[in-house]
Write a structure and sequence with these properties.
This protein is α+β, with helices and mostly antiparallel strands and about 375 residues long. The protein has three domains: about 110 residues, Acyl-CoA dehydrogenase/oxidase, N-terminal domain (Butyryl-Coa Dehydrogenase, subunit A, domain 1); about 110 residues, Butyryl-CoA Dehydrogenase, subunit A, domain 2 (Beta Barrel); about 150 residues, Butyryl-CoA Dehydrogenase, subunit A, domain 3, CATH 1.20.140.10. It is about 50% helix and about 15% strand. It has a four-stranded antiparallel sheet with strand order 2-3-7-6, with no helix packed on it. A three-stranded mixed sheet has the order 1-4-5. A two-stranded antiparallel ribbon has the order 8-9. Helix 1 packs parallel to helix 3 and helix 8 packs antiparallel against helix 9. The longest helix is centred in the middle third of the chain and has 37 residues. The two termini are about 35 Å apart. The chain binds coenzyme a persulfide (COS). Coenzyme a persulfide binds next to helix 7 and helix 11. Keywords: Branched-chain amino acid catabolism, FAD, Flavoprotein, Oxidoreductase. Its cofactor is FAD. Belongs to the acyl-CoA dehydrogenase family. InterPro entries: Acyl-CoA_DH_CS, Acyl-CoA_Oxase/DH_mid-dom, Acyl-CoA_Oxase/DH_mid-dom_sf, AcylCo_DH-like_C, AcylCo_DH/oxidase_C, AcylCoA_DH/ox_N, AcylCoA_DH/ox_N_sf, AcylCoA_DH/oxidase_NM_dom_sf.
Length: about 375
């Protein structure tokens, strides 16, 4: 554990209250306006949410993974847009720096990311490189004066419209696949960097993605993460190992909320002279949802503890992400089913959650990529 038990208990309680009293009541407005108001962003900053996983030396709370997943489960009970606002700074937008940045790079960027003054984003995906991330085509060429020139387009980049720092994977050599990929820290005002229009999405309104276009984008020599070429892909994969565990925890939180909504509706909605929660076919849906959520929560806690103990959790993180994201899809579907026709109506929360949670099976690696990673790791371990 990275902070003492009492401090963590207080933080968790504060986040739980914040979710219940501030975030859940604001969900509908955020979805309608497709934006989180500045007052809520300020409160999230004050709570330290942006810096959960950033070491204390750089201004974060320095939580271990076991603690981080507990907070992610709390945040997951509210509309996913809120978690997304802080999610890149906690995960993919800061962890490359934490894992592989030089001392000077960490000192320069991590305090701003920890406070939320700077929003970080992670630029791996491209129009023609999604699941096959190692096929990315963005190039970085070193100029004689040491500066780098980046060219390429990054797609569906979470929080790019708000970001001040972009962690960009780009090819620095002719070496094929992963070996030729390096990682760069690119500032929002780097010449040659521009943003596409915000994407229109199925759900998660209030969370934003867009293209990041690098057109002769010039960055200084020290923008190369860790000062080493060819390390970018491996760093990105390590960042994703952690990110996948975090997303699995968010899925557990969302499933908890969906069960609460389904139970509450089932207790008040009456048919055939009784609350529908008394009918065994409805009860079966609640029971399956609870058991699957409990299984996912237990998996996430186990994998997080292993990571804190220094184990490589590539396999476990993918197993958690796969199981929890598929699980919350089933739970959301049952929650809609229990609501009947009302579940299809926008005035009930489950309709929005049903759309919101669909993304969890896609980003930070589709279910099919998690299957591939799990099987590969199993075979590797056996060998
Ligand atoms: N941790 C550390 N290193 C890793 C790693 C991990 N989890 N996974 C792979 N690597 C390393 C490998 O060890 C290999 O290194 P060497 O060249 O030194 O042997 C290198 O990275 C290439 O790995 P691999 O050969 O497995 O790469 P592949 O191209 O076959 O594909 C997958 C790897 C499919 C797993 C990867 O492309 C992937 O995760 N795709 C999904 C991308 C994704 O999640 N995108 C979401 C958008 S970002 S939010």
């Amino acid at each position: 554990m990275a902070v003492d038990g009492d401090t963590f208990a207080m933080l968790r309680e504060a986040v739980r209250r914040f979710v219940d009293e501030r975030l859940i009541p604001a969900e509908r407005r955020v979805a309608e306006e497709d934006r989180i108001g500045p007052e809520l962003i300020a409160e999230m900053r004050a709570l330290g949410l942006y810096g959960l996983s950033i070491p204390e030396a750089w201004g974060g709370l320095g939580l271990g993974m076991a603690e981080e997943v507990e907070i992610a489960m709390e945040l997951g009970r509210a509309a996913p847009a809120f978690r997304s606002a802080v999610g890149t700074n906690i995960g993919i937008g800061s962890q490359a720096l934490v894992l592989a940045g030089t001392e000077a790079q960490r000192r320069r960027w991590l305090p701003g990311l920890a406070s939320g003054e700077i929003v970080g984003s992670f630029c791996l995906t491209e129009p023609d490189a999604g699941s096959d991330a190692a096929s990315l085509r963005t190039r970085a060429v070193r100029r004689p004066d040491g500066a780098w020139v980046l060219d390429g387009t990054k797609r569906y980049i979470t929080n790019a419209p708000e970001a001040g720092l972009f962690t960009v994977m780009a090819r620095t050599s002719e070496a094929p696949g992963a070996a030729g990929i390096s990682c760069f820290l690119v500032e929002r005002d780097a010449p040659g960097l521009s943003l596409g229009r915000p994407d229109r999405k199925m759900g998660q309104q209030g969370a934003h993605t867009c293209d990041v276009i690098l057109d002769g984008c010039v960055v200084p020599a020290d923008a190369l993460l860790g000062e080493r070429e060819g390390e970018g892909f491996r760093v990105a994969m390590r960042v994703l190992d952690k990110g996948r565990l975090h997303i699995a925890a968010v899925c557990v939180g969302a499933a908890t909320r969906l069960i609460d909504e389904a139970v509450a509706y089932g207790r008040t909605r009456r048919q055939f002279g009784r609350p529908i929660a008394e009918f065994q076919l409805v009860q079966a849906m609640l029971a399956d949802s609870y058991a699957e959520t409990y299984a996912a929560r237990t998996m996430v806690r186990d994998a997080a503890r292993r990571r804190d103990a220094g184990e490589t959790v590539t396999l476990e993180a993918s197993a958690c992400k796969m199981f929890a994201s598929e699980m919350v899809g089933r739970v959301a579907d049952r929650a809609v089913q229990i609501h009947g026709g009302a579940g299809y109506m926008a005035e009930y929360e489950v309709e929005r959650f049903f759309r919101d949670v669909r993304l969890f099976r896609l980003y930070e690696g589709t279910t099919q990529i998690q299957q591939l990673v799990i099987a590969r790791e199993l075979i590797k371990r056996a060998g």
